[in-house]
Write a structure and sequence with these properties.
five-stranded parallel β-sheet, globular, 653 residues, single chain, Rossmann fold
Length: 653
């Protein structure tokens, strides 16, 4: 019997029976969509893996009703699943049958469109002039204005949405969800910030709700009053001029009266993506308060979402009655068997999501959805781990994330694997990064990887440095070089100085004495995270960054939140500012105009990155037939790069 008794109770949304309280949250799938606007075989494999893994309800990627008004196609090639013709039910039935085979319920998420958040790349591709309820600034190019939608366009979209719901039902879907959150078109109509209309579709809240309510009414007429319709919406926007909680609660009641079967509640919009798309810096359950507030005033099921990949927390939310269903998205990308492992008491075997948003980054790169810690996500067939025809002796040098992944996959394929690590503990930099309170999920990932290599039977040689003689004595067929990276050289003071100069690594390890006035040299993600950790009322922190912006490599939901936290902590930011030298009073820098200035400090933290440690490589190539350099010893990069290099090389040896 599972200890998560509330998570594994059956439930209902309208007429749809759901075997447990886990919902796969809707997430874009990017290039998994076929060019014909259908669900490709890869897309079906992706969803079926999560259905096989035990989730109760899948809500698909966003699907469009028509390309007539807001095109998501170019030269006849479609970019999103498009429910605009009954003939596609042949594809939809094949898809939904595969999901139903695992006892899983499935809803299609339908959107009315993007409006003011329509992407510039699509404007260039399609020539579409973005519209919105009113003429308001475009999100991506605020110097430009949207045009106001015509009544014919509004009514045409209402009819198209109803037809798409009918097509979904005919295609075997158990229900649909309306994409009414985050500042997309349905949300723009609801909000006075973006809807300035004076006709029946604007004005007071009742008028601004007319678009949504008309769609709901027409869907019920077209698809049947017994066909479940969930509505995803933001209780509040949490931006100046946006929706506030009280209005959000009024909307919940209006949607319930209109016949909506369930409410899927989040907060935020494009202006603060770190709410609807919470990064690693958000606390677990960051939007449960919104669902709880709605749950208290409606009599229909409420779905909560937001960093809920923690089984104990998810079960507690249901036990306390804060919501009826728990939606998890990225945790199911990281581990499609998340639900099954919870049910079977195998929580320690769940590969955790680390909140890095590599999944979302890929969609913006016109790639298919995948996951930093699970390269097989979205390519379940291609990257299925299969036994090797020939057993090989594999030596892994380095026990960081790349080495652990190479050892894990190689062992699962039946190879004889030994991993050498010069320190007495596994994890490399991950062991250090995970100590940061903003990145606790990295520690969970490390624990998962260590458990997996032990379970797979990898021989671990800890506290053993490796040289060429060690390799010769081992006699491997294959070597994975995963020796990681070391901090770039620390700066030296130019005069006798009382100032402490330490590396970011020293700070993360807890090996540095920190004063009360700190200058961090380097404004990448690590420098920003350290600043947030250290800044408080008694400690003044400044960041000096040579580039024109901080943390440019972070996905913008993550970057937006870390910048907000820096502002809340009153961290002083100096961009376009080059470090020159350390003096007895602080750090001398050169600003963009070429002038020098002094940033006073008693502690300087150097966070200018790492450099590859790969001194063994030339000698290895001379004595071993197959050598793979992986992870930071190739070039210091993200966790995704280390895991993917290790996985892809190990799966092919």
């Amino acid at each position: 019997m599972t200890r998560y008794s509330f998570l594994f109770q059956p439930g209902r949304i309208g007429s749809a029976a759901i075997k447990n309280r886990f919902v796969m949250a809707p997430m874009g799938i990017g290039a998994l969509t076929g060019f014909d606007g259908l669900f490709s075989e890869r897309a079906m494999d992706y969803y079926e893996a999560r259905a096989r893994g035990g989730v109760g309800l899948i809500i698909t990627t966003v699907c469009i009703a028509t390309n007539r008004y807001e095109p998501w196609e170019s030269d006849g090639l479609k970019m999103l699943p498009t429910f605009d013709n009954l003939i596609i039910t042949r594809n939809l039935k094949r898809f939904t049958d595969r999901i139903h085979d695992h006892g899983c319920t499935i809803f299609a998420q339908l959107t009315a469109g993007w409006g003011r958040v329509y992407r510039p790349s699509l404007i260039a591709m399609t020539g579409h002039e973005p519209f919105a309820p009113s003429s308001v600034p475009l999100f991506w190019e605020p110097e430009k204005m949207s045009r106001e939608m015509t009544i014919d366009e509004i009514e045409g979209l209402i009819a198209a949405m109803a037809r798409s719901a009918f097509i979904a039902r005919e295609g075997g879907f158990d229900g649909i969800e309306l994409h009414g959150h985050e500042g997309y078109l349905l949300d723009q109509f609801k909000s006075a910030l973006w809807n300035k209309r004076t006709d029946a579709y604007g004005g007071e809240l009742a008028g601004r709700m007319t678009f949504s309510l008309s769609i709901i009414r027409k869907i019920r007429e077209a698809a049947g009053y017994d066909f479940p319709v969930s509505y995803r919406y933001g209780l509040e926007h949490r931006i100046d001029g946006g929706r506030e909680k009280e209005e959000g609660l009024q909307i919940a009641k209006m949607l319930e009266r209109a016949g909506i079967s369930a409410l899927h509640v989040d907060v935020g919009c494009y202006e603060n993506w770190h709410w609807p798309h919470p990064p690693e810096y958000q606390p677990p359950g960051c939007m449960v308060d919104a669902a709880r507030a709605v749950k208290e005033i409606v009599g229909i099921p409420v779905i909560t979402v937001g960093r809920l990949g923690y089984p104990d927390l998810a079960n507690e939310i249901l036990e306390k009655g804060y919501a009826d269903f728990v939606a998890i998205g990225r945790p199911l990308l990281a581990d499609p068997e998340f639900v099954k492992k919870c049910r079977n008491g195998r929580e320690s075997e769940i590969r955790p999501c680390i909140g890095c948003h590599e999944c979302f980054r890929r969609i913006y790169q016109s790639r298919s959805i995948s996951c930093a810690v699970n390269p097989a996500c979205g390519d379940e067939r291609l990257y299925a781990i299969r036994k090797s025809d020939l057993k090989k002796k594999v030596m892994v040098i380095g026990g960081g994330i790349a080495g652990l992944e190479a050892a894990r996959v190689s062992a699962l394929r039946g190879h004889d694997v030994t991993l050498y690590e010069k320190s007495t503990s596994l994890g490399g930099l991950l062991n250090i990064i995970g100590r940061n309170s903003l990145k606790c999920d990295y520690q969970r990932l490390l624990e998962f990887q260590i458990n997996q290599v032990r379970k797979a039977g990898v021989r671990l040689c800890l506290g053993q440095a490796v040289d060429i003689h060690t390799v010769k004595n081992e006699g491997p067929d294959v070597v994975f070089l995963a020796t990681g990276s070391v901090p770039a050289e620390i700066f030296r003071t130019t005069e006798k100085s009382p100032i402490s100069c330490v590396s970011a690594l020293d700070v993360l390890c807890g090996n540095a004495e920190i004063g009360s006035s700190i200058v961090i040299v380097g404004g990448g993600a690590t420098g920003c995270e350290i600043a947030v950790e250290l800044a408080d009322g008694a400690t003044r922190v400044a960041i000096c960054e040579q580039l024109s912006e901080l943390a440019p490599d972070l996905f913008h939901a993550n970057r937006g939140m870390i910048l907000e936290q820096l502002a809340q902590k009153d961290v002083r930011i100096f961009t376009d500012t080059r470090f020159e030298r350390i003096t007895s009073r602080g750090v001398v820098v050169t600003t963009k105009d070429g002038s020098e200035s002094l940033l006073e400090a008693d502690t300087v933290i150097v966070s200018i990155g790492m450099k590859a440690a790969n001194a063994l490589l030339p000698g290895l190539n001379e004595i071993v037939g197959e050598v793979h350099s992986i992870g930071d010893c190739v070039s210091p990069r993200r966790v995704k790069d280390a895991v993917w290099e290790a996985f892809k090389n190990a799966i092919r040896i």
